[in-house]
Amino acid sequence: MTDISRLSKKIAAIAESATLKVDAKAKALQAEGRPVISYAAGEPDFSTPEHIVDAARAALDDPKNFRYTAAIGLPELREAIAAKTARDSGWDAPASQVIVTNGGKQAVYQSFQVLLDPGDEVIVPAPFWTTYPEAIRLADGVPVEVFAGSDQGYKATVEQLEAARTERTKVLLFVSPSNPTGAVYSPEETRAIGEWAEANGLWIVADEIYQNLVYDGVRAVSIVEAVPALRDRTILVNGVAKTYAMTGWRLGWMVGPADVMKGAANLQSHLCSNVNNIAQRAAIAALNGPQEPIERMRLAFDRRRKLIVEELNRVPGFACPTPQGAFYAYVDVTAALGKTFRGVTPATSLELADLILSEAEVAAVPGEAFGPSGYLRFSYALGDEALVEGVRRIQALLSE
């Protein structure tokens, strides 16, 4: 009798999230009593600001929040998101073109579901967040990687993108600031890429979830602000998780052309209906309330950014460009590969990450999770003391 898989081929082919896998391993070791310091999770160590939590508490006293609401989101929240999009992305899109989702990850998933037919190609600049290729494949699309190394500041060029374009290319994924690298495209670079995409009739999925976490006076210019003609072919993805320290609240959104948002709304009505109303009320307070607590967190990230880059560049074999956004440092470790440390000679960044975890009790995510080998991602969204201690353990290990 033929052996039939218990899982569909599509689901069986999905790779586990590498960042969550490394973080889970680190937490398991910590639970065993080992003093592991983890740079794996992209999660602020700050508490959600109190005025946001207060709004959630107040929402619990209103029984209307215990009922079903519109699948696409509360009208007040969609208005607040539209105002933020106009303010930060330069697109005065109406609230009718906003859909509230269960985190930015769902918005990414739905974007590709509504845009792609089987075999459609999506150009994915690498290094990339580990979820993007899987979301594309789940929509029967084909991710096409375009790699930009540390020598390019981890930013792809128009020439590289054009070399990857084929007759099947439908979408360009554009992420600035980047996870995992923290790279921010300049206004000129963004405009050049946008004009290239517009000239070739491509759609854009722009993940802007880190747009407010930028440093050195840099501004992350939205691709629809740089090239307004793209607004009819772009979906913006965003959320409150990173900027407002609200990762566990699971509140994101997508903004796009009316017909595409109608399709996404139909999908969401069958997929999950409305996002938790308490989280939606909290997000309204986040977007419309005082922003001073957010600026304090950003300044703390900026301080940590400078500190971790300085310390990582003191590790033998490490080269870390200075990121201008997000809260990640992406280190080129190719010069450390092939050398022997405590009897182990790592040939890949995956092997190096395993060595560092076992010998220095420090968790970082290897480059294989985000594209080619030869890199390690360090999140500096953790306390200052642990941040320094972890890197110094690596310095000690790789200096032997």
Walk me through the structure:
The chain is an alpha/beta fold and 400 residues long. The chain folds into two domains: 9-47 and 293-398, Aspartate Aminotransferase, domain 1; 67-288, 3-Layer(aba) Sandwich (Aspartate Aminotransferase, domain 2). The protein contains 14 helices and twelve strands. The strands form three sheets. The chain has a seven-stranded mixed β-sheet with strand order 2-8-7-6-5-3-4, sandwiched between helices. Strand 3, helix 6 (131-138) and strand 4 (142-147) form a beta-alpha-beta unit. Helix 4 runs parallel beside helix 11 (277-288) and helix 5 packs across helix 6 (131-138).
Explain briefly what this protein structure is.
This protein is of the alpha/beta class.
Q: Average pLDDT value?
A: 95
What oligomeric state do the depicted chains represent? single chain
How would you spell out the order of helices and strands?
A: HHEHHEHEHEHEHEHEEHHHEHEEEH
Helix content: 40-55%
**Would you identify the CATH architecture of the largest domain?**
3-Layer(aba) Sandwich
- CATH homology superfamily name of the largest domain: Type I PLP-dependent aspartate aminotransferase-like (Major domain)
Distance between the termini: 58 Å
Strand order of the largest sheet: 2-8-7-6-5-3-4
CATH fold group of the largest domain: Aspartate Aminotransferase, domain 2
State the domain count: 2
Taking the sheet with the most strands, its summary is:
7 strands, mixed
Give the overall shape, derived from the CA principal axes. Answer: globular
> If you compute it from the alpha carbons, what radius of gyration comes out, rounded to the nearest whole angstrom?
21 Å
The CATH top-level class label of the largest domain: Alpha Beta
Low-confidence stretches: none
- Give the number of DSSP strands: 12
Number of helices: 14
Beta-strand share of residues: 5-15%
The class by helix and strand makeup works out as: alpha/beta
